[in-house]
Specification:
The complex is a heterodimer of chains A (382) and B (335).
Chain A lengths: L8 H27 L3 H6 L9 E8 L7 E3 L2 E7 L8 E6 L8 E2 L3 E3 L5 E4 L4 E6 L10 E8 L6 H8 L3 H32 L5 H11 L4 H19 L6 H25 L3 H9 L4 H12 L1 H17 L2 H6 L9 H11 L4 H34 L4
Antiparallel strand pairs in A: 1-9, 2-3, 3-8, 4-5, 4-9, 6-7, 7-8
Chain B lengths: L1 H31 L7 H42 L12 H8 L1 H32 L5 H9 L6 H11 L12 H8 L13 H27 L3 H9 L4 H12 L1 H16 L3 H6 L9 H10 L5 H31 L1
The chains are: A alpha+beta (382), B mainly alpha (335).
Chain lengths: 382, 335
């Protein structure tokens, strides 16, 4: 944009932006890739190795001595450690936990009592003993297998059914959709009055709305919880309901909605309204037929904000909505999973990705409106 | 599914109810005080009345909701902060004096100040630098989209993403967390980052910076583009280099926007809750005010007095920015 564009520094600019972009996207990429990996691989190797063959230390057990067969005067137990159909390869094996890789694949190991064990690369093993083997439990075998990369949707299948993410997804939609749509009309009428209808006290009201923009949510939690409990007890209805959270989200979203829409409407050309008024249109007609359609970009901006905010909200849902299976939203479920399944990264990564996928779709498809709304909401103040 | 139908029907019902309200009251007003078809003094009197009433009809639902959900709670919270845990018994400033002596509260205040110092500054700085850099390259918009993306991710989702980055496996076994893997590759020893007091706060802050930099970048980028070309051209003619142009010509012209970005992120930082709850829940000395407040709200059946008094502290910290915002907005309108 300026003359320095041509300087050799431009290469440095390219590289540093590339580095920053990498830093910013790698965490999310790691989550997405991990959620698609086989859970055994995910637990033992970093996601950046997802495409390479991973080497895992595993423990298997040979078949029990009851299955031994006599062959050439010797007793033999044979089988395959890797099961069948796998593409994994055994590289080393051992029989003591302290030396899990004492022998290379294909070697024959002396495991005492004259018995010998051979494990081949394909996982096939053979225990050969000069005497009949006793006992009911098979020999433990430690082995190192190199497993080719495997991607699967199993993690998603599991969290959608077992971990309750599926029903929470519906709950989140239930919270977010009405909370997004209902405030729009309410805010639009209010914004029009504040932008174009002269009345005493208008400037003060606008100042109040600007002030309310930054009132911390924390101030509202306890009084509203008390209020909801009181209303619930008075009418004999539960205090934590969807209706309650819809109204709460509407209340908390209104300052931004009114502020954004008022700024936008105040910027519309005065002539349109005046010529309509000359033609005999009332304020109501002007608003519904002219202002509302013209304000579509601002309405869309607000709707996106409100949807992202209600979908991503945790605090309001934790306070005003129950924790039953039919009420717990995605963010709440994710926090619970962090507590109860903290080490199960296959569950956490898949759940987290389901949680963020809807906002990401909204973000990428409607980014233009989001940016416009941000600019209208912030730059005007400066 | 049934629940979703319920939600959609409520939505349709809610919108219809709003439409009926606005249309109905407006129609009623015109019916009671007609001005069309009348002439003379009566018509102008009716017109005056309808013009005075109509704004309030338009605003009534919004004002009602704002009052119930934001204005009343502010006063009620202040009242509750002067009462005991159930909100019945007046206790004066006892909740606040308890606070001063409470180690956990002091920890939270200390941590909140750390957050306030670091997060707005770094987010704004990175946002500004990235905005300036991406404006010069052809794939700048793609880069911006990717850096802006975390904005859409919930704090809890971001917490999971970063918990995975910070994941710790004991020394010797393969690290699956990116940070520890890098540390090990560079010859260091892996650490359980979340459990190192004081420094763990910064690992939490990284998450918010990661989210907010995109916001700062978008706004500052627009501001940079709004700078008049002539000022930059004049500087070029005078022989200024890239850094001088950026810091001495461009940055001073967008101070106002930088301040807006800074204060917006500051407000957000004061309310930071989800990240701390999901990552540590205040353990290992990472407690912050919003999480402490939530904790007291439900701890042992809920202590509304102490909870409300912590909320009031957050509010007091916000007030200077609130006043500044209101002054700016008023000045803007007078222009």
């Amino acid at each position: 944009m300026i003359a320095t564009t041509r300087s050799p520094l431009i290469l440095v600019v390219h590289l540093s932006v590339l580095l920053i972009v990498a830093l910013w996207t790698l965490p999310t990429a790691g989550l997405l890739i991990s959620s698609l990996r086989d859970k055994d691989q995910l637990a033992v190797s970093g996601w950046w190795t997802a495409l390479s063959t991973s080497s895992q230390n595993m423990t298997g057990r040979a078949a029990s001595p009851e299955e031994q067969v006599e062959r050439d005067g010797k007793f033999v137990i044979a089988g395959n450690l890797l099961g069948d159909g796998g593409t994994a390869k055994v590289s080393a094996f051992g029989v003591r936990p302290m030396q899990p890789a004492a022998f290379a694949a294909g070697e024959t190991a002396d495991i005492g009592d004259g018995q010998s064990l051979t494990v081949n690369e394909d996982g096939g093993y053979e225990i050969v003993s000069p005497t009949q083997m006793e006992g009911t439990r098979g020999q433990r075998i430690f082995y190192t297998a190199s497993v080719p990369p495997r991607f699967t949707l199993d993690n998603y299948r599991e969290v959608l059914s077992a971990a309750g993410i599926g029903s929470s997804f519906i709950n989140s939609l239930t919270v977010a959709i009405p909370s997004t749509i209902i405030p729009i009309l309410v805010a639009a009428f209010c914004a029009y009055a504040l932008a174009w209808m002269p009345f005493p006290g208008r400037a003060i009201l606008i100042a109040v709305v600007v002030g309310l923009l930054v009132v911390p949510l924390q101030m509202s939690l306890i009084p509203l919880l008390k209020l909801y409990n009181g209303v619930g007890a008075f009418f004999g209805v539960p205090a934590k309901t969807y209706v309650g959270i819809w109204l709460a989200h509407m209340g908390f979203g209104l300052p931004l909605a009114v502020y954004l829409l008022r700024n936008y409407m105040a910027g519309l050309p005065r002539e349109i309204m005046e010529s309509a008024r000359v033609d005999g249109a009332s304020d109501f007609d002007i608003f519904v037929k002219i202002i509302l359609p013209l304000s579509f970009p601002a309405l869309a901006s607000f709707a996106i904000f409100q949807f992202l905010w209600t979908w991503n909200d945790l605090l309001v849902a934790m306070v005003f909505l129950g924790t039953g299976n039919d009420e717990l939203v995605l963010t709440g479920r994710l926090v619970n999973l962090l507590g109860s399944r903290g080490g199960n990264w296959e569950i956490l990564t898949a759940s987290a990705f389901i949680t963020i996928v809807v906002p990401l779709i909204v973000f990428f498809s409607l980014q233009r409106y989001l940016v416009r709304g941000l600019l209208a909401g912030s730059v005007k103040g400066g | 599914m049934q629940q979703l139908l319920f939600a959609v029907s409520t939505m349709v019902g809610g919108v219809l109810a709003c439409a009926v309200y606005f249309f109905g009251t407006n129609w009623l007003l015109d019916r009671i005080f007609p001005s069309k078809g009348l002439t003379g003094a009566r018509a102008s009197r009716n017109l005056r009345i309808t013009n005075a009433v109509r704004p309030w009809l338009f605003m009534a639902p919004a004002l009602l909701a704002l009052t119930i959900y934001l204005v009343y709670p502010v006063f009620e919270s202040v009242r509750l902060s002067l009462h005991d845990r159930s909100g019945q018994q007046f206790v004066g400033l006892r909740n606040f004096s308890w606070m001063l002596g409470d180690g956990e509260f002091r920890q939270s205040i200390f941590n909140n100040f750390l957050w306030l110092l670091v997060v707005p500054a770094l987010s704004t700085f990175f946002g500004l630098v990235i905005a300036a850099l991406t404006d010069r390259i052809w794939w700048g918009n793609i880069a911006k989209t990717l850096i802006f993306m975390p904005m859409a991710i919930s704090f809890v989702g971001a917490a999971v993403i970063w918990k995975f980055v910070y994941d710790y496996r004991s020394e010797g076994s393969e690290q699956i967390g990116l940070l520890n893997a890098v540390v090990v590759a560079l010859g260091g020893t892996p650490e359980a980052w979340m459990t190192i007091p004081f420094w763990n706060n910064f690992f939490l802050m990284v998450i918010l910076i990661w989210i907010q930099t995109g916001f700062a970048m978008v706004i500052l980028s627009a501001a940079l583009r709004g700078i008049p070309e002539e000022t930059v051209e004049a500087a070029v003619i005078d022989g200024a280099n890239g850094f001088q142009i950026f810091f001495k010509i461009m940055v001073p012209q967008i101070w106002g926007t930088i301040a807006v970005v800074w204060t917006t992120i500051t407000i957000l930082v004061l309310k930071v809750f989800d990240i701390v709850l999901a990552m540590t829940n205040g353990q290992w000395q990472t407690q912050v005010l919003a999480n402490l407040m939530f904790d007291w709200m439900f701890r042992g059946g809920g202590d509304f007095g102490r909870g409300a008094s912590i909320a009031v502290v957050i509010m007091i910290l916000v007030i200077p920015i609130m006043i500044w915002n209101i002054r700016n907005a008023t000045r803007e309108m007078e222009r």
